[in-house]
Amino acid sequence: MLKIKEAKVIVTCPGRNFVTLKILTEDGVYGIGDATLNGRELAVVSYLSEHVIPCLIGRDAHQIEDTWQYFYRGAYWRKGPVTMSAIAAVDMALWDIKAKVANLPLYQLLGGKSRNGVMVYGHANGRDISETQEQVAKYIDMGYLAIRAQTGIPGLDSTYGVSNDKMFYEPADADLPSENTWSTEKYLDHIPQLFERLRISFGFDVHLLHDVHHRLTPIEAARLGKALEEFRLFWLEDTVPAENQESFRLIRQHTVTPLAVGEIFNTIWDAKDLIQEQLIDYIRTTVMHAGGLTHLRRIADFAALYNVRTGCHGPTDASPVSFGTLVHFDTAIPNFGIQEYMRHTPEIDEVFPHNYTFSEGYLQPGETPGHGVDINETLAEKFPYQRSYLPINRLQDGTMFNW
Ligand code: EZ4
Ligand code: CO
Hints:
Strand content: 15-25%
CATH architecture of the largest domain: Alpha-Beta Barrel
CATH superfamily of the largest domain: Enolase-like C-terminal domain
Number of helices: 13
Radius of gyration: 21 Å
Number of strands: 16
Number of domains: 2
CATH class of the largest domain: Alpha Beta
CATH topology of the largest domain: TIM Barrel
Largest sheet: 10 strands, mixed
Bound molecules: (2S,3R,4R)-2,3,4,5-tetrahydroxy-N-oxo-pentanamide, cobalt (II) ion
């Protein structure tokens, strides 16, 4: 028995907000987990402090599965991003502790290495096609093998995926939600031109990806998928909002462009039909929003039965704690596809010292026992929470739309 003595929530904002749970045991071993839910951070802080931590004290840190079930079934109120982010943080911290006690890097506890490195994709974006093209060239120079390309749309002031800072993309940009404007017609006409230009300039060796960010109807998504077929995308992401999993049946009937979805899912149930009916190619659920490593493994194993591979969400709102955990997970599982990798600023990396490294298009987990990520609490304290929201999106006539 390795008794949990104390648990605390650390909120810090070194340029953006992060919520971290630290669990300490009687033996002095501790583990940390990421509980960041972009734009709704304090809801998870309160869930953890008021409702999770009191039940954690005195439990056996080694009983990871039982603890997961305790907080999932035990809450009575199942699922949801707040609950599942809180459970995720507990789960990550407990896996960190177990691996530290075993004196092994986390991937060893998950079955050992299945590959030599974790292929990632970076984010290239620009206000217009030429600027995006320049950014893609930069990522190729930095050694990336896969690149997500987004671009501004003529006639629209701003859109998803186009940032001011090219190296450090950050959508949670305002004290109150900023507003984007959207036109599906303009978007659908423009995006095939972007990929035509990129393929002419860079050929077919580099993997190209694109994120639609839930803005189309199934038949519009089918049209886009069809129009992009000749440019052979690695994947087309989040074409439609996925509350209706059956939407993907229609898209699938019309296009062979590979489909990815799931960054906002928080349980296996959100993806069950999509996976079982083989309606998608990549599942994007991620460690801090889908119940931690324990639940993510369950999703990945289920997906493996249907030849669906993983492509875990890895935005800047995933703290280095999540990235560390993900790189171990990606290293170990058989059906890994690709890992999203949005770099953090040097300031963030200093608050969260870590052992994963990037080189020649791949991330490596490192050999430190645990997930290999720590938090400098003294430094973290210097950056108090700052409210910041993701944007909202309206049609040109003012109708509230999907961001
Ligand atoms: O909009 O993480 O694929 N990546 C994404 C992200 C999400 C943000 C939301 O917090 O869609 O940029
Ligand atoms: Co996305």
